[in-house]
Amino acid sequence: MYTAVCVRSFRRYATYRAATGARVITNTVFGFIISYTYLALWQVRPHLGGYDLSSALTYVWIGQGLLSVAALNDLGALTDLQTRISNGDVAVDLYRPVDQQAWWLACDLGRAGYQLVANAAIPMLVGALAFHLRVPQGSGWAVAACWSASALALVLALVVGYAIRYLVALTAFWLLDVRGVQLVYFLACSFFGGFFLPVTLFPPVLEAIARALPFVAVFQVPADVFLQRYDAAGTLAALGLQLVWAVVLLGIGRLVQGRAVLKVVVQGG
Amino acid sequence: MDDALIEVEGVTKSFVVRRRAGRFRRTRTVVDAVAGLDFTVRRGEMVGYIGPNGAGKSTTIKMLTGILLPSSGRLRVAGADPVRDRVRLAQRMGVVFGQRTTLWWDLPLRDSYELARRIYRIPDATYTRNLARCVELLELEDLLDVPVRQLSLGQRMRGDIAAALLHEPEVLYLDEPTIGLDVVSKRRVREFLARVNAERGTTVLLTTHDLTDIEQLCSRVMVIDHGRVVYDGGLDGLHEQGRSERTLVVDLEREQPPIELPGTRLVRCEGTRQWLAFPASASAAPLVAALAGRYALRDLSVREPEIEDVIARMYGEAVVAV
Amino acid sequence: MAETHLPLWRSGRWEPGHALRCYGHIVRMWIRAALAYPASFWMTAVGNMLLSGLDFAVIAVMFLHTHALGGWSLPQVAFLYGTSGLTLGLADLLVGSMDQLGVRVRDGSVDTVLVRPVPALAQIAGDRFALRRLGRVTQSGAVLVWSVAHLHLDWTPLKALLLVSLVICGTVIFGSVFVGGSAFHFFMADAAEVQNSFTYGGATMLQYPPTIYARDIVRGTVYGVPLAFVNWLPALHLLGRPDPLGLPSWYAFASPIAALLCVVVAGLLWRTGIRSYRSTGS
Question: Which PANTHER family match (chain B) (predicted)?
Answer without folding.
Answer: ABC TRANSPORTER ATP-BINDING PROTEIN (PTHR42711), ABC-TRANSPORT PROTEIN, ATP-BINDING COMPONENT (PTHR42711:SF1)
